[in-house]
Amino acid sequence: AGGNSSNNSEAFLDLQNPTREQLCDGAWVVAAMQHLCRTQVQRSLELYRDATRAGLDVGALKPAQSAELFTGLVTSAIRLNQPRDALKMLRECRQKGFRVNSAMLASATRLCTSKQFYRDCLEIYDLVAEDRFLVVDDRTVWSCLIFCAMEAREFRRCIDFFDNLKAFGTPSQKDYGNMIRYASTMGDWQMSLSLIHEMREASVEVDNVVYNTALATCVSSNEMDKACFLLEDMERSEGFADVITYNTLAKGYSKMGYLDKCFELYDHMKTRGIVPSQVTYGILLDCCINDKQMDKALEVFNSMKQQGCALNTVLYTTLIKGFARAEQVDQAMELYQQMRAGGAQGITPDVITFSILIKANCDAGRLEKALGLLDGMMELHLCPDEVIFNNLLGGCIRDANHILAKRLYHSMVEGGIRPSNATFSILIRLFTSCRQLDEAVEFLKTQPAARRIVPEPRLYLQLTQACLRDRQGRRATEVFKLMLDEAPPTAVMTGSLLSTCVKLNMLATGVELLNMAADAGARVDWRDVEGLREASVKKKKDAFAEEIASAMAKLDFRGKRD
Predict the structure, then answer these.
(1) How far apart are CA 256 and CA 54, in angstroms?
(2) Among candidates 143, 142, 140, 129, which has minimal Cα distance to 99?
(3) Each residue of 134-178: pLDDT tens digit?
(4) What mean pLDDT comes out for the span 119-143?
(5) Is 434 helix (H, G, I), strand (E, B) or coil?
(6) Nearest 5°: CA angle at 311, between 327 and 355?
(7) Closest residue by Cα to residue 127 from 82, 89, 97
(8) 562 and 525 Cβ atoms separated by less than 8 Å
(9) What global pTM score does this model have?
């Protein structure tokens, strides 16, 4: 035995610098590969490449040798995190006339799965499966493929893989678990229940993860009766129904607006010794808020505190959102003050909390309070976002405070917060409500380009309409010209402007807008043009009627087609 060990050692002395004769010797290369795959994986791949360059005739290898060689190459590539190289080796194996056997496929799928190369694993299988004579006699291949199909989100393949697995007998608990995940992903509550039935029939243990996943599938499909039957099954055995189980069911009731059912389930879980979690109380709060039962929501919140349930920012914010939605801003602010006082316990407002409170105060005409909240954000080193600034700018409209709005806008852009078309729309509305039309026009001319925002046509329409309502025809045509140049209007938009001109008896402006649209080749509905023409005739404005006829000729039949 000692002599054999010495001979083997001598045979591999030249692995780093093999001779050409050795590299062309198939038996030597296969033996060397087997040795290197155990100790020097990268070198095994390099040795194979060296051998092929030296002239190794792989096609001359015996089937057993080729199987050993390519199994080693494929597994080495996967171990080195090179699954694409493994796929290349398998293609080469087939090109050389060798068949990939079940053992090689099993090694590759197991390794790919463990390395999380899920999509590569499926590609390897697809390549090998092109051999219609291949018989996969290892059930682990199908188990791995089911898991990989789930992780790679190739869900359509799971059923076929599962059917192949079942040909080997009863699937394992893990296999059933993956198929339960598949059923959940597909929203197939019937399959979920069917799989659980199969597991029971086959005496495969059904754990609470499987139960909870199936329960969640029933709930998401609004099959609450089926979910309740499943809960009854779970409750027949100790330890299966946990707080996640009851929270899932409660969430379903909350989504459907069944407030009473939520509280019945809450009482039921407590009688079974299940301690409600933060999530449980969050669901109850949401349900109360959605049902506009703020008194009940406050009872739940106080009950949490009394029972020692750890409070957090999300729970406080949920209740604040409820009070804000119910326009009970004082109660919302009181909770905010509690949060600030509880900062030492790790309960502090976040950006969402401030966003809700700032909007609520702005909507209630309490701009000073909203600005105080903005200061509070800064104290906590929280960065306000575009939504918060938009709400503050909206609050300035109620107070007609365009000076403050400009300061806020400046702070917004200086702070690196990119405005949006919604921001521009709010400011245009503010300037026009403050009768600052010149400032509104200048703002629309300069700011979208300065902030690299593509302006939406609705901004120009909004400002043009405001100018018309203020009977400022010159400004209206100025903004409409901008619109034609920067964001061509739809036929509906142009029509709304012409209709406004008719209603306000601004026929001269209407005719000018129509001529501008015709010259620019804009889309105009002939019915809106006809409405302007009829109004001109009725007012005996013959010159206008002639101009309208000329514009209609320029528009040709485009208006009727649009």
Answers:
(1) 72
(2) 129
(3) 889 899 999 999 999 999 999 999 999 999 999 999 999 999 999
(4) 92
(5) coil
(6) 40
(7) 89
(8) yes
(9) 0.70
Under 8 Å between Cβ of 280 and 246: yes
Please give the radius of gyration of the chain, using alpha carbons only, rounded to the nearest integer: 37
Residues 6+ apart with CB under 8 A from 248: 212, 215, 216, 219, 227
Q: CB neighbours (10 Å) of residue 425?
A: 18
- Return the C-alpha torsion angle 112, 114, 115, 118, nearest 10: 50
Neighbours of 343 (CB within 10 A): 11
DSSP strands (E only) in 299-420: none
**What is the structure's pLDDT at 401?**
94
Q: DSSP secondary-structure letter at 60?
A: G
Q: Give the type of residue at 510.
A: G
Proportion of the chain in helix, strand, coil states, percent, rounded to 5: 75, 0, 25
Report the alpha-carbon distance of residue 26 to residue 18 in Å, rounded. 13
Q: What angle do CA 209, 210, 211 make, to 5 degrees?
A: 90
At residue 127, what is the residue type? L
C-alpha–C-alpha distance, residues 479 and 460, integer Å = 6
Rounded CA-CA distance 463/449 in Å is 17
What's the pLDDT tens digit per position in 475-510? 999 999 999 999 889 999 999 999 999 999 999 999
Q: What is the DSSP letter of 348?
A: -
Q: Which two tokens stand for residue 517?
A: 């649209």
Q: Terminus-to-terminus CA distance in the chain, angstroms?
A: 94
Provide the angle, in degrees to the nearest 10, between the axes of the packed helices 83-95 and 102-114: 170
Gap between the Cα atoms of 516 and 473, Å rounded: 13
Amino acid 224: pLDDT: 95
**d(C-alpha 144, C-alpha 517), whole Å:** 65
